[in-house]
From TrEMBL:
Superkingdom per UniProt: Bacteria
Protein name, entry field: Methyltransferase domain-containing protein
Gene Ontology BP term (one): methylation
Positions in coiled-coil regions: none
Keyword Cell division: no
Species name: Microbulbifer marinus
Record-linked InterPro entries: SAM-dependent_MTases_sf
């Protein structure tokens, strides 16, 4: 049985793997691996699972983790820049780190901070750390973020990448029931081509997509 890809909308994604909880399909066009919609958690179940996380603004381990995105991102930004932390969660530590470096950062999270006004402004950069693997409609959400970037703006994504079917079968990342969209290097190459973006792999799990054009002050 084939499935439609939620990223590129190709109609014939094929079975990739199945565990005892759910099946996974892979798109032959953009290589996204995804969970079919009928296996997604309800919004209430998803929120309850997120509430189990214990990240805090004082967590040094969490800060080291986010530094893998913050450090290369700060090297790319002119100060001061205006940004958005999309999917910031209840403890927006990355936004705090970027603000301390001299940037203005708005916050948005569909569960913890549904600040609709923040999604109507334009930004020099947008960060989405450990977010896109949760998206049921990555095509719509990524397009929405891309539209909010100014010319020359940077979308910084942090997510773990699919390597191979063998690695996937034993991958801790798929044990999280809120993880439903799994990207890989070929997926990001497809996305960069689709968005006409400059692609940079800043770290093993950190990907930058830069919008064409030059932002004028």
């Amino acid at each position: 049985m084939s499935r439609q890809c939620p990223l590129c909308r190709h109609p014939a994604a094929q079975p990739y793997y199945r565990d005892k909880f759910r099946p996974y399909y892979q798109c032959g066009n953009c290589a996204l691996v995804f969970v079919p919609p009928e296996y997604h958690l309800s919004p209430e179940e998803e929120r309850a699972y997120y509430d189990l996380h214990e990240n805090s603004l004082q967590d040094e381990g969490y800060q080291r983790f986010l530094n893998r995105c913050a450090t290369p991102l700060l090297n790319e930004l002119q100060r001061p820049s205006e940004g958005l932390d999309f999917g910031c969660g209840p403890a927006p530590l990355l936004a705090q780190m970027l603000a301390q470096a001299g940037h203005r950062v708005e916050l948005y999270d569909s569960y913890y901070l549904p600040n609709t006004g923040a999604m109507k402004r334009d930004y020099d950069f947008i960060v989405a750390t450990e977010v896109i693997e949760h998206l049921s409609a990555p095509d719509k959400e990524l397009q929405r973020l891309w539209q909010r970037l100014r010319p020359g703006g940077l979308l910084a994504v942090m997510t773990k990448l699919v390597i191979s079917p063998e690695r996937f079968a034993n991958w801790h990342y798929i044990r999280d029931p809120t993880h439903i969209s799994f990207f890989s290097v070929p997926t990001f190459r497809w996305l960069a081509d689709y968005l006409q973006a400059e692609l940079q792999f800043a770290d093993s799990d950190v990907i930058f997509l830069r919008k064409s054009g030059v932002h004028s002050e």
